[in-house]
Amino acid sequence: MPRPTPDAPHDARPTLEAVAARAGVSRATASRVVNGGAGVRQPLVEQVRKAVDELGYIPNHAARTLVTRRNGAVAVIIDEPEIRIFSDPFFSQHIRGISRELITYDAQLVLLLVEGSGDFERVTRYLAGGHVDGVLAFSMHTDDELSAVIRRFRVPTVYGGRPGRPGASSELAVPYVDCDNRGGAREAVRHLVSLGRRHIAHIAGPRDQTSALDRLDGYFDVLPDGDPALVADGDFTAEGGARAMAGLLERRPDLDAVFAANDLMASGALRVLREHGRRVPQDVALVGFDDMESVSEATDPPLTTVRQDVVGMGRLMVRILMGRLNDGATAPDSVITPTELVHRASA
Peptide bond before 6: cis, by omega within 30 degrees of 0? Predict the structure, then answer.
């Protein structure tokens, strides 16, 4: 008597051959449908998809990559120290928008952090390995090597923020998404002028980032004869804003308004003003930039600030990148989003 054949294990994964047999098509046809290939008639596509659902088939990622020449992954590269990325709500909002939009394209987010020159080799190796279909890079600095690394491997890239000064040789012919930093700064300073403030200070962001430079330019657009002693450099952190505010009060104790280049620096400035006995807004009016609600609505008083749609900008970056990947577009396709002054109690 022949020995009985053991039953197949209940947790055995269904094969592509099983999908093809259930759908009544060839293995090659099933492979093209499952792995995103083209050239299959719609009725057959529906048969294969039905078989996949019935069998619980899970596509093989390596096979899908061979067919589509895609990895289904996008690298998000942030050129900032880890401690700042996880303490500044700007970055979490940006990543939230990117992640939400990537989901609609069934693509995976791969986060790459760059804290210094020592990380460039690691990022270079990763990009050289062809692990991602494209790159979304933001918080770029004009004097770093990251842009050169990205260009070297010709990875389709969209930048968050313009990667160079307008007209400067460092500006890259690549698409980017940015807000109207200069226009938003002008609106903030005009508001302070409209309140009758005469000695308006500015806490600027890092001078190697175009967003900070544009906001500084917007300040001087409204106050072209402004006193340089009323401008102090910060670093987009609350601590940097506090240091800058202390220096401003020492140099110009008569200041009666401050425009800070982001909300975190405004929160640090607010703390120092309170420590020096200055009332906000009675003695010193204060305006920030970004409208990060976890900051602007938590300050006392709540912060008047310039709103930019950070989540929406992240989603736009993904759409532009996917359009270039799908359509083969090579020309830059950049977007400047509008800003809005949000009136609260600080100014």
Answer: no
Mind listing the pLDDT tens digit for each residue in 222-277? Answer: 999 989 999 999 999 999 999 999 999 999 999 999 999 999 999 999 999 999 99
Q: d(Cα 214, Cα 204) in Å, to the nearest integer?
A: 10
What is the DSSP track for 171-196?
--SS-EEEE-HHHHHHHHHHHHHHTT
In the chain, the amino acid numbered 5 is: T
What the block records as the tokens of 290 is: 């970004």
7-23 tens-digit pLDDT: 444 456 788 888 899 99
With CA atoms as reference, report the closest residue to 252 among 196, 201, 287, 286: 201
The per-residue DSSP string of 115-151 comes to: -SGGGHHHHHHHHHTT--SEEEEES--TTSSHHHHHH
- For the chain, the maximum distance between any two Cα atoms, rounded to a whole number of angstroms, is 105
pTM across the whole model:
0.77
